[in-house]
TrEMBL record:
<dbReference type="InterPro" id="IPR004358">
    <property type="entry name" value="Sig_transdc_His_kin-like_C"/>
</dbReference>
<dbReference type="GO" id="GO:0005886">
    <property type="term" value="C:plasma membrane"/>
</dbReference>
<keyword id="KW-0472">Membrane</keyword>
<keyword id="KW-0418">Kinase</keyword>
<protein>
    <recommendedName>
        <fullName>histidine kinase</fullName>
        <ecNumber>2.7.13.3</ecNumber>
    </recommendedName>
</protein>
<dbReference type="Pfam" id="PF02743">
    <property type="entry name" value="dCache_1"/>
</dbReference>
<feature type="domain" description="HAMP">
    <location>
        <begin position="328"/>
        <end position="380"/>
    </location>
</feature>
<feature type="domain" description="Histidine kinase">
    <location>
        <begin position="487"/>
        <end position="594"/>
    </location>
</feature>
<feature type="transmembrane region" description="Helical">
    <location>
        <begin position="308"/>
        <end position="327"/>
    </location>
</feature>
<keyword id="KW-0902">Two-component regulatory system</keyword>
<keyword id="KW-1133">Transmembrane helix</keyword>
<dbReference type="InterPro" id="IPR033479">
    <property type="entry name" value="dCache_1"/>
</dbReference>
<dbReference type="GO" id="GO:0005524">
    <property type="term" value="F:ATP binding"/>
</dbReference>
<dbReference type="InterPro" id="IPR005467">
    <property type="entry name" value="His_kinase_dom"/>
</dbReference>
<dbReference type="Pfam" id="PF02518">
    <property type="entry name" value="HATPase_c"/>
</dbReference>
<dbReference type="InterPro" id="IPR010559">
    <property type="entry name" value="Sig_transdc_His_kin_internal"/>
</dbReference>
<dbReference type="InterPro" id="IPR050640">
    <property type="entry name" value="Bact_2-comp_sensor_kinase"/>
</dbReference>
Length: 600
């Protein structure tokens, strides 16, 4: 690795020593080659994604078709079971008392067998139809041997129910047919006498699993794609590959997903990527699964990509020839300068020309960088001057508020003196002194929220002395909020606005509620009053005024909103809600900045 930086340095020196013609030719050839490669890769990925989505859609449709076929088969099976148990011959024979007459029993068995055979013969999907009576006699549709009586287990499953249909998942048959055993899906139905309603027995209708597998064996989902069915435990219930029957898919990566989801997803299986599409079949708690190798889905796409690369190589060669012919009139440094100038024209001054050439273009780039740097510095100075100007304007507006409050308070002191309320005079003078001590705040525009709450509370206490019991207030802040920053006179102008424009003209006692909470990285303050509220047409205009006049309603709100945005950014400020005749709520959003951080 130690030789790599040296090699890179030599390569850069060689490149920068080349003529502009050779630079353009080499750069264009490499760039075009990379672009064609990237384009081919992205085209392959995008088109493969489209093909996979289409394969999911087509396979899902095929699985839906399988589900519909199964539904028809099982519905018909239940109907044929009902036909069998309502057959007059079967009802009459099983309802008759048992006898020891062998001929009579033979005739009964023959009569039921004929009835069952007539039902089964025309139904290709019915493998066997078996009737069990309460005397443990077994009747079948014919050609069945070694029938194992399973009625006890299934009678218990039905319990005390008079009727019922129960399906049993795929398992080896309890009979032989043509001396062969098979795997079957069986329906069991308890049946009763049509005359007396008493239980007569149990009927079993079995469907060969091969017949189920044949329903999807001819569905094409790719040369090596296949469809199979698993139960809710992940055991294969039906598959054209008989060696897979009764095996578990639990060890496969896709198993848990397929059992719990529908749709399609790509998995890595047996060393290759495959598309797994699943559809549930609620009747049996089955999942029908189709698996298609991804290489089969995208094989045509790979051929197209190979051709794209071949054509791209020809284009690169043609481009190199053309570049050699026009290289004298085109240079990459000039293009870089052009793009940078366009960025500056669009207002982006955070640009830098990194041209390493030591020719005239390099000198031009150097001077251009100087020019952009000076322009950026000039713009920053102008912005700073505008910010300070606005700050001064707001400070002047603020100074117009304080004397107004002072005059009113002094008038109140005179009124209290006439009434000889000396204790109230002492109290209001102390409160007034404390208020202005907080307002001055050693000249700082940024103070702690605790100091701002003290200023606002002092202001409210002065007003309570002036208005006596006509105004009440509550303060509720999280203790952790006190150390965070705010602008000075944030709450006081809002409270003053609430009193003079909301509570002053209200009949009855006025109330102001002030509370604050920490929400993530922000402080959320709220000032609510039960005053006369603000008409909607006036509410919409409070923050839209371009020129702020002290005599306007909402002057304190607009000034405070502007100051918040000036100090903390445009994403912070005030939100105003008001219902005319009911009251007004001002919500304040500030950044959670602790004392000593930014925005001082």
């Amino acid at each position: 690795m130690s030789g790599y930086p040296r090699f890179r340095t030599k390569l850069e020196e060689y490149y920068y020593s080349l003529s502009i013609n050779k630079k353009i030719t080499l750069s264009f050839m490499v760039a075009l080659s990379m672009l064609i490669i990237l384009l081919a890769v992205f085209a392959f990925r995008i088109s493969s994604g489209i093909l996979i989505d289409k394969a999911i859609e087509n396979t899902a449709q095929n699985l839906k078709l399988v589900s519909e076929k199964l539904e028809i088969i099982f519905d018909n099976a239940e109907n044929y079971s009902k036909i069998a148990i309502t057959n007059n011959t079967i009802q009459e024979v099983i309802s008759e008392p048992q006898t020891k007459d062998q001929l009579d029993n033979y005739n009964k068995n023959f009569a039921i067998q004929e009835s069952l055979r007539n039902i089964v013969d025309s139904k290709t999907f019915v493998d066997a139809l078996i009737v069990y009576d309460l005397h443990r006699n077994i009747y079948n549709s014919g050609n069945l041997g070694n029938i194992r009586n399973v009625s006890d287990v299934h009678f218990k499953a039905f319990g005390n129910s008079l009727y019922g249909v129960a399906w049993e998942n795929t398992k080896p048959s309890n009979y032989l047919k043509g001396n062969d055993s098979r795997n079957v899906i069986s329906l069991f139905q308890k049946f009763n006498s049509a005359k007396t309603g008493q239980t007569l027995g149990l009927i079993q209708l079995s469907i060969d699993e091969n017949y189920i597998a044949n329903q999807y064996s001819n569905i094409d989902i790719g040369a090596s794609g296949h469809i199979f069915i698993v139960n809710k435990d992940g055991i294969v219930a039906s598959d054209t590959r008989k060696e897979k029957l009764y095996t578990a898919i639990g060890n496969d990566e896709y198993a848990s997903w397929a059992i719990g989801n529908e749709g399609g997803k790509v998995f890595h299986l047996d060393g290759k990527d495959v598309l797994v599409v699943a559809k549930s079949y609620p009747r049996f708690d089955w999942v029908i699964i189709g698996i298609v190798p991804i290489y089969e889905i995208t094989k045509d796409n790979r051929v197209l990509t190979d051709k794209f690369f071949a054509i791209g190589a020809l284009f690169v060669l043609a481009a190199v020839v053309l570049t050699l012919l026009i290289a004298k009139s085109i240079t990459s440094p000039l293009n870089e300068i052009k793009k940078t100038v366009q960025n500056v024209q669009d207002g982006n001054l955070d640009v830098w020309l990194n041209v390493k050439s030591r020719d005239e273009i390099g000198a031009l780039a150097k001077e251009f960088n100087k020019m952009v740097g000076k322009t950026k510095l000039l713009m920053e100075n102008i912005i700073e001057e505008q910010r300070k100007k606005k700050e001064y304007e707001l400070a002047v507006m603020q100074s117009q508020i304080n004397p107004h409050f002072l005059y009113n308070t002094l008038e109140s002191i005179c009124g209290l003196a006439d009434l000889k309320r000396n204790s109230d005079i002492v109290k209001i003078v102390n409160q007034l002194a404390q208020f202005y001590r907080g307002v001055l705040s050693k000249g700082s525009a940024i103070i702690t929220l605790e100091d701002e709450i003290v200023i606002t509370q002092t202001y409210l206490e002065i007003l309570k002395i002036r208005y006596r019991d006509q105004i009440s207030y509550t303060l509720d802040f999280e203790p952790n909020m006190y150390r965070y920053k705010t602008i000075k006179l944030l709450l006081q102008p809002i409270v003053e606005n609430s009193i003079y424009h909301g509570l002053k003209n209200k009949r009855g006692k006025g109330r102001i509620d002030i509370h604050g909470r920490i929400h993530g990285a922000s402080l959320m303050l709220c000032v609510s009053d039960n005053g006369i509220g603000i008409p909607k047409e006036r509410l919409d205009q409070i923050f839209k005024a371009k020129e702020i006049q002290p005599s306007q309603n909402g002057f304190g709100l607009n000034v405070t909103n502007e100051r918040i945005k000036l100090y903390f950014g445009p994403e912070y400020g005030l939100e105003l809600e008001s219902v005319f005749g009911e009251g007004t709520t001002v919500r304040i959003t500030l950044p959670a900045l602790e004392t000593g951080g930014a925005a001082e």
